[in-house]
Task: inverse folding
């Protein structure tokens, strides 16, 4: 007798593949990120920020401010990263800085959001928390021999580049009809003066005292070249990064010199293994402590706080006062800030500290040609002189590019576009010390000529 067995399948079992498919789709969506933010969290933050705007008031507490900067910074950066060609020349950093600047100027950024960003940026001054963490983290995690050789060598391409850029920029301006005096003092010198606070403002005050003119008018004239010079340096640094990917022999990918394998290797291995939260917290408070030392040096001796902090960190490293655990943890602090804080910081800088109208006011052909020739010659000199001195030419060129950056904010944008944030200590030398020397010599020269 043949027996036929019938298997009963419940109706709800038919839905099992569909349920599994739905769960898989949810997991895939959760894995999508806008910058560092998972897509569901990103959409939730957008909805919440929009809801606060609709009520007419955005809370001023730190959590909301961090959320706004995170959403804004990584949204702009993602736009830049998805543009063909431009994504390879630093579009992410440029977009994260200049899109919020334009939105603030054109009043497209909701007023409560803009007020929150401006108040948070100016009250916390978290730009210097970022810079101190990057500088201290990169210096303490750097090989001691690399640090000594790098700091001694970097002044040569920087000094030669400054002279060459001054000559080239002034010559181009003279040929184009602006004259050597106006070209050098109002276009070339501001580019290499170290930004706004350390460069454009001291220059305008000095010029006003020497010439007997209004400082405000002079400041409005020297500010646009500072900003456009920084933008040019960002673009060219992005191109250098792209060149390094095509020709790896020209770059150390953040290492300044060949045979510097001890630079970041131990710390990179430490990140992938177990690490102690207490050590990471110790590295963070060490960064803050050294920045406070810099602030005290500024209070007592009028010496720029970031530069003082940089030198103290170098002394700690050279004196072997830093334990191996603290060195490894400093690298983790550095990586956290460079990964998670860079684009939110650029968004804050763009919205609160980058006047769009001042930037576009200098967009005429003559100014652009002079600014580009100045920055390009500065970078090219760093490239070739660095190569002659057995340094990686792309790294040397990027450090020279920071000499034409907009202070600490320019350094962040330039090194972000170049994907070499570990060069921040050398960038600070180029910006702060190079800028201070430029301002001093420029004012001495103007006083003699006047």
Result:
């Amino acid at each position: 007798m043949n027996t036929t067995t019938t298997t009963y399948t419940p109706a709800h079992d038919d839905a099992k593949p569909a349920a599994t498919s739905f769960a898989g789709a949810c997991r895939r969506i959760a894995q999508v990120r806008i910058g560092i933010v998972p897509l569901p969290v990103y959409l939730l933050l957008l909805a919440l920020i929009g809801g606060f705007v609709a009520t007419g008031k955005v809370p001023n507490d730190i959590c909301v401010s961090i959320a706004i900067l995170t959403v804004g910074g990584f949204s702009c950066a993602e736009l830049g990263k998805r543009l063909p060609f431009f994504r390879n020349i630093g579009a992410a950093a440029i977009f994260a800085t200049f899109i919020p600047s334009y939105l603030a100027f054109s009043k497209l950024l909701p007023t409560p959001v803009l007020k929150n960003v401006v108040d948070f940026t100016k009250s916390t001054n978290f730009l210097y928390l970022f810079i101190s963490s990057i500088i201290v983290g990169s210096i303490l995690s750097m090989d001691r021999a690399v640090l000594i050789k790098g700091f001694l060598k970097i002044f040569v391409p920087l000094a030669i580049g400054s002279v060459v850029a001054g000559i080239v920029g002034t010559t181009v301006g003279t040929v184009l009809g602006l004259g050597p005096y106006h070209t050098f003092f109002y276009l070339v010198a501001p580019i290499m003066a170290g930004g706004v606070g350390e460069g454009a403002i001291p220059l305008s005050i000095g010029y006003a005292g020497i010439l007997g003119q209004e400082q405000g008018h002079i400041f409005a004239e020297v500010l646009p070249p500072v900003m456009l010079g920084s933008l040019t340096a960002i673009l060219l640094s992005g191109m250098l990064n792209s060149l390094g990917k095509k020709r790896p022999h020209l770059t150390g990918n953040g290492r300044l010199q060949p045979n510097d394998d001890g630079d970041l290797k131990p710390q990179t291995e430490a990140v992938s293994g177990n690490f102690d939260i207490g050590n990471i917290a110790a590295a963070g408070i060490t960064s803050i402590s050294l920045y406070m030392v810099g602030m005290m040096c500024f209070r007592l001796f009028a010496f720029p706080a970031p530069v003082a902090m940089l030198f103290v960190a170098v002394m700690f490293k050279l004196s072997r006062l830093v334990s191996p655990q603290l060195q490894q943890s400093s690298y983790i602090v550095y990586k956290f800030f460079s990964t998670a804080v860079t684009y939110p910081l650029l968004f804050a800088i763009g919205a609160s500290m980058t006047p769009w109208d001042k930037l576009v006011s200098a967009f005429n052909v003559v100014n652009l040609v002079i600014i580009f020739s100045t920055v390009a010659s500065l970078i090219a000199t760093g490239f070739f002189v660095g190569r002659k001195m057995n340094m990686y030419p792309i790294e040397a060129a990027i450090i020279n590019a920071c000499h034409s950056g907009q202070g600490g904010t320019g350094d962040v944008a330039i090194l972000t576009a170049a994907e070499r944030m570990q060069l921040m200590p050398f960038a600070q030398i180029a910006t702060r010390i190079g800028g201070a020397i430029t301002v001093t010599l420029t004012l001495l020269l103007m006083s003699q000529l006047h």
